[in-house]
Amino acid sequence: MTYGGIVVSLEVPDKNKQRADIVLGYDHLESYLKRNPYFGAIVGRYANRIANACFKLNGVEYKLAANNGGNSLHGGIRGFDKRVWSVLDASHNRLSLRYVSANGEEGYPGDLTTTVTYSLSEKNEVRIDYSAVSNQDTVINLTNHSWFNLAGAGNGDILEHRLQIHGRRFTPVDSFLIPSGELQAVAGTPFDFTSMRSVGSGMDTREEQIRLANGYDHNFVLDGDGTLSLAATLEEPRSGRKMEVLTTQPGLQFFTGNTLDGSIRGKQGEIYERHAALCLETQNFPDAPNHPNFPSAILRQGQTFQSTTIYRFSIAV
After folding, report:
1. Which of 64, 66, 117, 266 is 20 to 30 A away from residue 109, measured at CA?
2. Residues 74, 145, 166, 275: which is the catalytic one?
3. 275 catalytic, yes or no?
4. C-alpha distances in angstroms, 217 versus 105, 220, 287?
């Protein structure tokens, strides 16, 4: 829908050709307006966290809207997820949306024009193409924040889902989930998803990073080279549903729905308990504007930001 560019439903067949909606959300717009933990939304101008809600660009410090313990999360108080987007083009398998973020909105510099196009292919793919231009230097990080449960939204937790991430490093965080700046190897840690294993297999651990996030809420450094590459594969054993995530982005935020607590009633009145879904958000690194060793999040005046993410669905064999 045009509010937040939100993906409200995604129906995928299982191994018995039975369809189920695999993304969390609500039945009515009013619920999204009242309380939405970014279900299905386009997130920007800067997805994920920026420490102390500030960054420097060209020697100028910019103060952002703080909405997460003194930090800025997912674009601030009214990020792209809470804006009404304009429809540029729509057909049976394609929707192109645009939003113009004014200079100073949530503290960010520059008038930023963002276009996001959703399309469906004959290969059972949901493709998301992002582009943006600004009339002055700014920072940008765009993603889609769909919450997936391949067993069907509201149908249990995701701990038995099996996951592989093509990333041999991740960015450790502090107690506010802000990256330290280190790029740590996943080998020998609960973050090693280089081979397919269950999501819950690393959750019952005393490892500090798991405790800080109450699960997984971490950015993985992808092995890709900036071209469209396989980032992750997710499978749900009972239904047989399989989802592959391909992206041009350098990072993947893996989040296990740790903040759900049973207080949200979603589609058809289903109660969303902890770990009712997971997110695989393709993106730049959290707090990249404050870490020179991270991939640059700077969008220069007159340049065009572009990225592509594909969610491809099939049956696991």
Report:
1. 117
2. 145
3. no
4. 27, 10, 14
- CATH numeric code, 11-315: 2.70.98.10
Return the amino acid letter for 253.
Q
Q: Decide if pLDDT at 206 tops 90.
A: no
Catalytic annotation on 92? Answer: no
Average pLDDT over residues 256-262: 97
Among residues 164, 167, 281, the alpha carbon closest in space to that of 234 is found at 164
- pLDDT category of residue 187 using cuts at 50, 70 and 90: very high
The catalytic residue among 74, 106, 281, 291 is 281
Distance CA 153, CA 24 (A): 5
* pLDDT at res. 317: 87
What residues does each domain of the chain span?
11-315
Q: 112-150: per-residue pLDDT in tens?
A: 999 999 999 999 999 999 999 999 999 999 999 999 999
Q: Residue 86: CB partners within 8 Å, gap ≥ 6?
A: 2, 97, 98, 99
